[in-house]
Amino acid sequence: MTLKGFLFALTVFFSAQLSAQTLEDYYRIAAEDNPGLKAKYTDFEASLERVVQVNSLPDPTFSFGYFLSPVETRVGPQRAKFSLSQMFPWFGTLSARGDVATLNAEAKYQAFLDARNALYYQVSAIYYPLYELRELQEIEVGNIRILESFKTIATSKFENGSGSLADALRADITLQDAIVELAILQEKENGMHAAFNKLLNRPYNAAIEISDTLTVQNAPIVFQPDSILSRNPSLASLSLQAQAAEAQQIAAQKQGLPAFGVGIDYVLVDKRTDMDMPKNGQNVLMPMVTMSIPIFRGKYKGAIREAELLQESFELKKQDYSNSLLSSFHKVQFDLKKQTDLIALYRRQVVTTQQTMNLLLSAYANSGNDFEDVLNIQKQLLKYQRTLVNALVQYNISFAEMDYIMSRNN
């Protein structure tokens, strides 16, 4: 190879390495581009703006009045009045409202984290079946090659007079079934390909890199209920909403207390023209204090009761979700153990069946008998190869679900 050719090959190799994408890369793409997840984060950002709103005092009130008929006073007629006032809620009311908004915002962030983890699981739940489809296609291609060789052998034996035409026809029928099955698998992959890209918010025909192999974790999964419950974003969100309801109860209680206001009135006074006197035409400055009296208690009692019921509701939801979470953990833990056992079994079955087929094929090549046994054992081998791939895929999907349950991606 020339130096130019070597450099070109090296460039192609490194370009392929840089363009290859792993499942973790697809997680990142989905987290950045999925519109549903972006909407969750935008919802969280919007809730942060609520904190500033509820922590602010009500706007001051300014008013202006003009006396169409001047009010005569000792120092002159009043012509106009300016008023400026500011209301202040009871001590701690603003901070209580701020606590409600802050806790609700934190709850929305935890909901965003849960949506992100759920999206990762959805990506895995399509990624691994895509691996399965591609592996099944490879298996089917290998099966077609074997069946073509079977057909060639059977036809040759028939032509030599040492075999039957039925053997060649049976091989051809099985071969045609395999060709149709391969076409079905290819069509099915196109649909899943589009669904996968939809999660990533990409064009439906964007290229997808799939791993060549799937692994099985050797380390056992240790059951730690406290860890699962403490790390779960959905439970954290419900806890924060319960705390927000408690803060809402405090805010409702404080809203039922008086609010105070301070203000000032400034009155414009004209001079008297009929006489001269001290402070003639002097404008009036009058400080004011106001207080609201919350005597209609029904709405405040209703708001307090509402907050209490919300706390109870969120605590019940937490308990229900905790039970569901632990139940799902045990189910997935069983599925992982089952698939691990099946993977080991199918691997042994593939090896044994392959050896059996080699022996039967050798016997058929020598005697020309028992061709149907050769086809049957090939079908059995195909079945074990397919189920092995399916078991590997189901194991990895269950492992991704376990990641979601245990919030390993947080």
Automatic annotation (TrEMBL):
InterPro entries attached to this UniProt entry: OMP_efflux (IPR003423), TolC-like (IPR051906)
Keyword entries, A-Z: Cell outer membrane, Membrane, Signal, Transmembrane, Transmembrane beta strand, Transport
Signal peptide start-end: 1-20
Compartment(s) of residence: Cell outer membrane
Gene3D superfamilies for this protein: Outer membrane efflux proteins (OEP)
One Gene Ontology term, aspect cellular component: cell outer membrane
Keyword Transcription regulation: no
Family, per entry: Belongs to the outer membrane factor (OMF) (TC 1.B.17) family.
Protein name per the record: TolC family protein
